[in-house]
Amino acid sequence: MSNQNALLRRAGYVARARSHSPPMRSRKARAMGEPSRLLTRDERLRLTRRIRELEAENSALEQLSITDSLTGAYNRRHLESMLANDARLREHTHATALCVFDVDNFKLFNDTYGHGAGDQVLSAVARAVMRCLRAGDDYLFRLGGDEFCVLLFVDSMHETLRIVQRMQRAVKALLLPQREITGRALTISFGVAWRDGGAAAGYEAPASPCDMYHHADKMLYEAKRAGRDRIEFALL
Question: What EC numbers are recorded for this enzyme (predicted)?
Answer without folding.
Answer: 2.7.7.65
